[in-house]
Design brief:
Oligomer: heterodimer
Number of strands of chain A: 4
Number of helices of chain B: 10
Distance between the termini of chain B: 27 Å
CATH architecture of one domain in chain B: 3-Layer(aba) Sandwich
Largest sheet of chain A: 2 strands, antiparallel
Structural class of chain B: alpha/beta
Order of helices and strands of chain B: EHEEHEHHHHEHEHEEHH
Amino acid sequence: MSGNRKREVLILLSVGGGLALLPLLVGEFYLYVIRLILIYAISALGLNIFMGFAGQINIGSAGFFCIGAYLPTMLQIKLGWHYLTAFPLTVVLSLFVAWGMSYPLLRLRGHAMAIGTLSFAMAVHLIAERFPILTGGADGIVVPPMALWGRTMGNTFYYYLILVFTVAAYLICFLLVESRIGRAFRATRDDEAGAAAMGVDVDHYKRLAWVVNGVFAGVAGSLYAQQAGFLSPSTFSLWTNIIVLVMIVVGGLGTNLGSVAGAAIMTSLPYFLAAIQQYILLVQGLVLFIFLRFLPYGVIGTLARRYRRPLLAKKG
Amino acid sequence: MNRVDLTLKEGRITALIGPNGSGKSTLINIISGVYAATEGNIFFEGKCIDGLPTHKIVEMGIARTFQLTKLFKGMTVVENAMMGGHSWAKAGNFFPIVLNRPSVRNEEKAVHEYAMEMLKLAGIQDRASDMAGNLPHGQQRLLELARSMATKPKLILFDEPAAGLNPHEEDMLKEALHSILRMGVTILLVEHHMRLVMNVSDWVHVIDVGCKIAEGTPKEVGKNPAVVKAYLGKEY
């Protein structure tokens, strides 16, 4: 077990190291797309914990994304905080919001729970739109650039900042899914009554997965705001909720690598198809349909099944 | 269920039999905290356990299996058995895990070892890295046994463990039951399979339509006219 794990961590760290060299190799535009991919990868990894591993449905990640984006931005604008001081507070706030939300939410099951998560995201979206004091309103606001040691930080710095968080998020998920907690998540997904009979407090683990989902989405949102430089409530529409879900389905539910692959595919798709931009929603819908119909395990899940048989069936 | 009193002797196999719909599984569900009893109490080691949630009851040392297996089909066989460690190996909390603490790694090793031991006890250790959903039906039942034994229980409630087993698997079940007894675990066996019950149990309770109608050694119960009438049929 440990030999395999060590090798995977090494692979991950060297991929991270390779990505760190990218700013030297690619131009500004590609770097922008890769930043977006990495940000969405964080969000997708979190959603995958809740959906792919704990087996619950969440179509409201954008709610946390929105909170995570606006909180540090408004702290910077209104109170003159530094982004790096506002950031930990963002993590704490998303954690508390997720924790609080989990109590009403866990009273619901299945599709009702999914609608519950959606209404949460809609509520956050409405608050962002209707309370200009909190968010700058529907017109949007400019996010002040970050300064360190008297110098304004540019896109390359943001890229590294995002990369560090993406690698950290991946490591957390990697360690989590094959641990006591990860097994409890998967047991809850496969059979709640069976999990309870093994001593698993099912509600506790659903809550934990939801909080991980919320915090990861919050972190992703906060990184997004800083690197984009501009925020408006329309950034966090219904589509933002769905696209992350499409990512983990396309990549492969219940695989960490799949979340990253899905983020890469769905984020870069519009740029590959720039020529038919007006039909991009159609294409994305078609992609989702094709995967659900023909490749239900997603890119990574299908590959794993073909080449390594069951993905999680590693020799003990 | 109505006025059923049941005392389980430590370190023995007590069987509970009765016709379909007599409330055998209901009783297991009440003891394991799935249903709440409207009246009466359940004592375990001198402590009243009714009203406790299922996972707390497991922690106190009462494990169970299900009539229709409730395995984790998307997990491997050994991971299913490792779920048994959830109630006794508790170093695996969020921060120790994501910091990859040695305490967590050592505990994982211990849980894995114990899970393998229990798979051996059930005779399915060579299927350890298969997906649980891919096992044939009989082995799935044996995996449920291994999994509930992996919780290190003091009392284990078996809900028809022999249903659908072939003769070979039945022998393995019998052997496993004996090894479980040797480990000092008390067994409540709910079963339809008369040959198995008569063979292995020390004491038999018979219930019908939610009421207890007889109890005694397997031999006594087999001769009791009320039992023969309610359950075994005239020709038995």
